[in-house]
Design goal:
66% helix; mainly alpha; elongated
Length: 179
C-alpha cells in the first residue's frame, strides 16, 4: 500500500478508535514507519496525524526514530497534538527519542507545545517560550531556572524526573556555556 501511495488514504479514513485498535494490536507503528513525509503532510492536512500520534507508545516513537521517521512526523503535527501526547504521558518518550538538533529545527509552535505538554508550567507562567529561553541563556552566563523554590509553582514529581526536561536543561545549559 505504501508503494502505491494509498497508505495515507487508508490512514485518513480511520477513526480514533481504529488508531487505538491498531495500537493495541501493535500495528500502528508498522503503518507509521511505512509512511513518507508526504503521507504525514496529507494526514496533517486532514487532521488525522495528531490523532494517530497520540495513540502511539514510547516504544512506537523509538521505532519511528530508528527508521528516521519520527522527526518528519512530529514536524507535521500541530501544537495541540503534542500537548495531548503529554496528557497521555508519552511526550517524555517522544522528545527523548528526538535529537536536540531535530527539536531546534522545529517551528516555535511545536517547541512551545513540547514545553506545555511536558508541563513546564513554571517556565510558561513566567511568559517564557522556547525561543525566549534559548535567547536568555545566550545573553547571560547563568543557567536557566526550571523549578521555582516556592511551593505554589513546583512541578509534579513526575515532571521533576522527566528525561525530556533533563535533555532540555542540558541543551539550554550548553548554550549558556557557549555564550
Amino acid at each position: 500500500m505504501a508503494k502505491d501511495g494509498k497508505l495515507d488514504q487508508m490512514a485518513v479514513q480511520m477513526s480514533e478508535e481504529d488508531y487505538k485498535r491498531m495500537a493495541k494490536d501493535g500495528k500502528l507503528d508498522d503503518m507509521a514507519v511505512q509512511m513518507s513525509e508526504e503521507d504525514y503532510e496529507r494526514m496533517a492536512k486532514d487532521g488525522k496525524l495528531d490523532e494517530m500520534a497520540v495513540q502511539m507508545s514510547e516504544e512506537d516513537y523509538e521505532k519511528l526514530d530508528e527508521e528516521a521517521k519520527l522527526a518528519p512526523m512530529v514536524s507535521n503535527m500541530e501544537r495541540e497534538g503534542l500537548v495531548e501526547i503529554g496528557k497521555a504521558g508519552n511526550l517524555d518518550g517522544l522528545t527523548d527519542a528526538l535529537e536536540s538538533t531535530e527539536i531546534e529545527d522545529m517551528n516555535i509552535d511545536l517547541r512551545d507545545g513540547m514545553l506545555e505538554g511536558l508541563d513546564a508550567d513554571y517556565l510558561r507562567s513566567e511568559g517564557e517560550t522556547f525561543d525566549k529561553i534559548l535567547e536568555s541563556t545566550e545573553i547571560s552566563a547563568s543557567t536557566v531556572k526550571f523549578d521555582d523554590a516556592s511551593e505554589e509553582s513546583n512541578p509534579s514529581e513526575r515532571f521533576n524526573n522527566s528525561e525530556a526536561l533533563d535533555m532540555l536543561k542540558t541543551i539550554l545549559s550548553s548554550v549558556a556555556a557557549d555564550a
